[in-house]
Amino acid sequence: MPEFTPFGALNPALATLGAVVAFYAVFRLVTSLLNGLKAFFLAGPLGLSANVKNYGDWAAVTGATDGIGKAYAEQLAAKGLNIILLSRSEDKLNNVAAEIESKYSVKTKTIAVDFTGGEEIYTKIAKEVAGLSIGVLVNNVGISYRFPEYFHEIPDRQKMLMNMLNLNCMSVTQMTSIVLPGMLDRKKGIVVNVSSASGMQPSPLLTVYSATKAYVDYLTRALQTEYASKGIIFQSVLPFFVSTKMSKIRRSSITIPTPTAFVRSALATLGIEDRTNGCLSHSIQGWVVDVAPAWLVNKVTVSMHLGIRKSALRRLEQKKVN
């Protein structure tokens, strides 16, 4: 009696397909490891990163008074660039500007602006920066939820949604629109858009934040393709947790870097990676998210966010009692 095979003549084809899939998975892993080695270990010593000083005299940074934005402003100043600081609080802007001028001996310019506003704020910004040779733009300003929440239960939902869209999406688009013509005239420029790992895949209970960060990532990747041949570098930065006020994480660790450590690592990838998670530990996490099944990523994300939500609601109840 002949031996029964479930797929008969298809077995060789399935074996070939399995080999191709396995080869592709190994290829992606090896490529990721080599890219990580180049970006995080060789770029600095070998001088492979883009030299920001060659792109212009000024760097503009939005959301520049705290966290990742402030770290970008400081480290770009350390490389010799004059800094345009854009944020809402004039007092904080003046303090950061004074720190940078004192420590790095560069010029600063402050523009106090609320990015939840509309078209009028960009008219103001365009006038303020006219004539300046802006070689680097860092679009960092943004907001997230106070804590993970179901869409229909977001506090003051209508206002919050509009503010988030203006801060996270409109600011990136409009600021790029302001500085890009000058970069094209000089045939060089760098635009760094700070997205988020939450934008790599849908992030339930941070739904709108996740969607806005996906917008930032897609916008940046498309612009990089449009303008790479014109001397402009667009880079999408997708961090996981960093110890900032937004993340509400105070202590840093191997997987949760300080803003300074994160930005130092991310800047080393300029000119090497168009899309980066910024540092080695985050890149490893990003690789896991990329290769893991979407259903598993969603399950882990929902579980984590529900736990954070539960703790946050408990703290709010305790405050009401006290």
TrEMBL record:
InterPro entries, sorted: NAD(P)-bd_dom_sf, Sc_DH/Rdtase_CS, SDR_fam, VLCFA-Steroid_DH
Keywords, alphabetical: Membrane, NADP, Oxidoreductase, Transmembrane, Transmembrane helix
Subcellular localization(s) per the UniProt record: Endoplasmic reticulum
PROSITE patterns given in the database record: ADH_SHORT
GO MF terms, alphabetically ordered: oxidoreductase activity
Pfam family for this entry, one: adh_short
Highest taxon above the source species: Eukaryota
GO cellular component assignments: endoplasmic reticulum
Transmembrane segments: 12-30
CDD domains per the UniProt record, alphabetical: 17beta-HSD1_like_SDR_c
Main location group: endoplasmic reticulum
Gene3D superfamilies recorded: NAD(P)-binding Rossmann-like Domain
Family designation: Belongs to the short-chain dehydrogenases/reductases (SDR) family.
Name of the protein: Uncharacterized protein
